[in-house]
Amino acid sequence: MKPGYQQANVVILHKDLADDFEAFCRANSSPLPLLYRSKCGEWSCGPLATGSDIREDCPEYCVFENGVLMKKVASLSSYTPQLQDMVTFYLGCSFGFESALKAAGVPVRNVEQGKNVSMYKTSVACIRAGQFHCPMVVSMRPVPEDKLDNAAQSTHGIPLAHGGPVHIGDPSIYMCNATSTPLGVSVRPRQRSHFCFSSCAIECTIVDMFKQNAIIAPSSENKRLSSAGFLQSPLLSSRGIRALFLQDELLKACLSLSHSSSVLITTGFPTHYMHNPPEETDGPPGAIAMAAMLQALRKEVVIVTDGRALEMNQHIMRDAIKKGASIIADLVFLRYSLVVLGVDLSCLVRTGSYCTMFSECVCVCVCVLSNWGGYAVACALYVLNLCPIHWRYLHSGLGLSLTPDQQSLWMACLPTVAKEEEMLHILVKYGVRSGKTANLGLEVDGLTFHPYHSDVIQRLRNLTLA
């Protein structure tokens, strides 16, 4: 396509359906990027092109009656009387970002092979508006592994051409069968390429709509989350735990959590076998901080503890809720595959594997810094979900953008010095002691809450809200 021009898909329907269809486009802006809605009986599209006449401009038109394709014609002029009561919608097309891909050094295989792009119908449902509803359709372009970041970054800034990818990788996991026949043509991938899927408007609007009787994480956040310095405190060196930091581990853990629907959190280690209860103060506060943020992100969260400590932890949870903790997690066992978080209960061993009581789960994310790690995960999830690229990818480009109310809810779930100090008071009330010293007070692993832990929490908040 000539630089500076945008290809448009066209849908013409009766004025009685126009408002619903516009609402459908607004709710599904990725597959249906709305370039222009005409007035009733308007043939031109002034904001997009001069001297246009939609009755004659397209090389071919599909004419549907009562949801059935009746004919294909080269002109709509003979339908001018009917078109007086119809509205034209101009929708963006992914061909509009192919020049940006080339400029970013990403090969466009369908162009190289002289083919149309491959398109697949997915199992992902578009958000319904009025009588319009359908599964989303995606176009597929094979992208070399070392060009995936370039492809995502170069297309994200072009939302009127469907924007960035809505899925990268194995199509059978999420969208469509890898062996399914494309709606268009097959484009041959090369070695070390990944399937890169973008929303598509063609089949979404022209096929499924008519069947319903109607005539488809940015660099700044990565730097904040991937750095081993997300928890920067002079305490780290003196505690001998800096070696436990692994580059990008926090980012990868939060990406796994953000894409999950259910999260199981385990915590509570019986450190003080000479005391009753034997639990320590390191673990539960971090677990509850994570659970609060995950629930605000609409994840199903369950905190698991052993039977001996179940009643005590139920009391701790109730007291935390009474004091304003944003959490309603259940203390029960789950039996299906999910993401598992261990807080001061699992450990990283020399082989690079995690040693934990669970053997069958999707993945294990371990907070090796216990409460500090739990606070960091809660804060990092907040930062990650504010990223527009991640938010769009997470929701397949469907639905509305993040609202101020959602952001306010997430912010309210961030750890604060006051909330975590109150949490320690609750633990002390039930006899939970410091892990290193067995002191019954506002202390975790031999460090008093003020000034040590409060300093870490405040540093995290400052970085998170910067």
From TrEMBL:
GO molecular function ontology, one term from the record: D-glutamate cyclase activity
Keywords from the named record: Lyase
Pfam families: D-Glu_cyclase, GLUCM-like_C
GO BP: glutamate metabolic process
Domain D-glutamate cyclase-like C-terminal intervals: 238-324, 345-461
Protein family (similarity comment): Belongs to the D-glutamate cyclase family.
Record's protein name: D-glutamate cyclase
Organism: Sinocyclocheilus grahami (Dianchi golden-line fish)
